[in-house]
Amino acid sequence: MEINEMKKMTYRDAIRLGMTEEMRRDDDVIFLGEDIGLYGGAFGLSEGMLDEFGEARVMDTPITEAAIVGTAVGAAATGLRPVCEMMFMDFITLGMDALVNQGAKMHYMFGGQAAVPMVLRLPAGSGSGAGAQHSQSLEAWLCHVPGLKVVTPSTPAQAKGLIKAAIRDNNPVCFIEHKMLYKMEGLVPVDDEFTIEIGKTFVERPGKDVTIVTYGTLLHKAIEAAEFLAEEGIEVEIINPVTLYPMDMKPIVESVIKTGRLIVAHEASKTGGVGGEIVARVVESEAFDYLNAPIIRLGGLDVPIPYNKELEAAVVPQRNDFVHGVYRLLNRE
Amino acid sequence: MEKEVISPIEKSSSSEIIAEKSAKELLPDSSQEKAQEEIQDEIELKPEPDPRLEKARATPAARRVAREHQINIQTIPGSGPNGRIQIEDVKRMVVFSPGHSGYSSPETAVIGTALEEIIGNPENVFSDPIKEEIKEEKSEKRETKIKKPVAMKPAARNNKSEMMPNPKLDFVPFVEGEVEPLREEIIVKSVPLSSLEKTSFEKTAPEKNEQQSENKTILTEKRKDIAERMVRSNLETAVITLTTEIDMTEVKDLRKKISKKIESQAHFRCTYTDFLLMATARALMKQPIINSSFENDEIIPHAYANLGFAVDTDDEMIIPVIKNAQDMSFVEMVKRRGETLKSVKNKYYTPENLEGSTFTISNLGMYGILEFSAIINQPNGAILSVGEVVQRVRVHQGEAVIRSVMKISLNLDRRVADGMAGAKFLQDVKADMENPSLLLF
Fold first, then answer.
1. Where are the domains of chain A?
2. Which of A208, A233, A260 has its CB closest to that of B87?
3. Do A7-189 and A202-329 have matching folds?
4. Which of A47, A307, A14 is nearest to A177 (CA)?
5. How far apart are CA A95 and CA A71, in angstroms?
6. pLDDT, tens digit (0-9, with 9 covering 90-100), for B58-86
7. How far apart are CA B167 and CA B119, in angstroms?
């Protein structure tokens, strides 16, 4: 394999670069959303895209998410490859009918004759003090609907690789991007054919004592915790599923067989979260016989996210929760 | 209505049925109530057995290994939370169940390093994680594999799990983690070392490569150096020993209350030693003569307390120094003591970490020593020997109650200070330790 040339850029720029490259490559790719054109996106993500691709391909829409998703599903079914942006993931509720009852079903109900190659970009997560209606992580809802793919990148490189793979995928793909990661910097391959396979789980850090499965911002908190624990000789293996549906369980199962101890963490509320599904799948797998401690789920509290920053931090798992979780699994508490 | 009820009875030829039915009709309420009461009584007498009883609490991994090696999981004592049986507990049984150990005394034994040695036994295929994998893959070749002595890497192992008891030998584990003992009390009985030696040590001894013998010469030189220093100290100093008993009950209670909070701030657990270091540093400031060096016929009292505390490592005793302890808050002390201990255990320390002590504390309490008398670490003028925290009946507020007590002894160079200063120093330490909340400020 050739060594890819890398460039340092932010998560936000990596998503823009991925979209821009795909729009240059394929004229069928269009981009629609609220304030993405002239204003450059609520988070400045699509700055300059209007100038390059024009109003026909970068479309400012009215403030109606139902129309955005509905338009995208229709456009996708009739040959385009739309990427649409919700200003906040929380507003997906308004587009749910078009997404769940039309977009996710068409390929199946029309006997495979229709495809819906659309991407839904969903800025999710808490940490910005934006309040309960702008801070949710609703990935579990989307994972529950067969026909949708759900991906969530945690680094700039993953962001670029996944947005490109999502645009090239012939299914509706929900691309969940964490708002607090937008400014995170990292090395990103410059190669415009670089994609990340959807449905592939990554081992972010190898270890032998405890397995942590997590994604989004918590990945970085878990890595911090792992570095802290490494000083005490505890080796934590961190696994990032990246694709939440369809999830590649093999590396997770293998890791649990190796360590016998598992922590699953996400920012979304614990009840009904993706973490419960991961745990259930681990217990159903051959890894069950290798579990040497109860599994720990770290999740957001079952409350609307407060806007007060202190409270906001208190309701989602933090670095110390990982540290104490690991201690608990190793009987140190 | 009546006809419908009566007609089947008329058809029946059995007189018994008629008798029963009529009896029921005659005494419907009272008899039914009685029957119900009896049933209720029975339920009360025989409650549903608790489904948790008689079931071993074991992790799936522990059950798998027990199954593979045909071990009855009920017989294994668990080392996990609330006695949960974990994979490590089962693996330990796998090694020792053939009965190689000659030790069968019902006596409880408290073992120090010997316990580690036994678990590091090369026949213990599970003691080394790499060995374990080999064993599972090539079980036929096990006999030839296991006879090779394995180089012991104590640092690489998880000390905590290695220190857990082997039920067959009936050891009592007595060190929590790798730091100071935090247990309530340990009954110390005879240690049959002879029988233990047969189990493992002799087998590891014969084969030695060159590296090991080199190590050996280095070690003896170190020991020589230590020996010379010890003898010199003993010859040159005029030692008097002062002993006092400290009521540790308050410290114990306080430690329980604050330990979480302190741990969250200092990232280390607070131990009795931290309280003692704090109390010592403060007492030294009040009695600076105890905190002096004796060099070239000069007594030099110090305005700062650099506390050395003896740490037992694998091959030698090291005395790292906590500098300027007099200015530290409790949290700082916990942190410094934890970091220092960590660096010593991981051999990160530099010579500067070992220099400049003005006073030394030696603690053998974790080995069940009640009181002892350490040799002065020259040029210090004194050394504090710390014994075990034990529960004893003591008169407290006019009543005989069980209190946790600890004996400390001050070995003082009589050339540096007289007994009165030493006594005042111990008095100060005792006062602080018995009112430990003052140490937090």
1. 7-189, 202-329
2. A260
3. yes
4. A14
5. 10
6. 999 988 888 887 788 888 888 888 888 88
7. 12
Is domain A202-329 classified as CATH 3.40.50.920? Answer: yes
* Topology, domain A7-189: Rossmann fold (3.40.50)
Digit-coded pLDDT (tens) for A55-70: 999 999 999 999 999 9
Among B61, B81, B129, beta carbon nearest to A331: B81
Q: What is the pTM of this model?
A: 0.54
A65 catalytic per annotation: yes
Structure tokens belonging to residue B271 = 């131990």
Residue type, A318: Q
Pairing of strands A262-269, A81-85: unpaired
Q: What pLDDT is stored for residue B352 in this prediction? A: 77
Question: Taking a C-beta distance cutoff of 8 angstroms, is the pair A1, A182 a contact?
Answer: no
Q: Which of B85, B179, B267 should be substituted to probe chain A, the one whose Cβ sees the most A Cβ atoms within 10 Å?
A: B267
Q: Which of A21, A85, A134, A177 is catalytic?
A: A134
- Interface touch A291/B81, C-beta < 8 Å: no
Return the minimum-mean-pLDDT range out of A10-14, A40-44, B175-179, B379-383: B175-179
- Given phi > 0 = left and psi -120 to 50 = alpha, else beta, which region is B345? alpha
**Interchain contact, B61 vs A332, CB within 8 Å:** no
pLDDT of residue B40: 56
Q: Are B274 and B334 in contact (CB under 8 A)?
A: yes
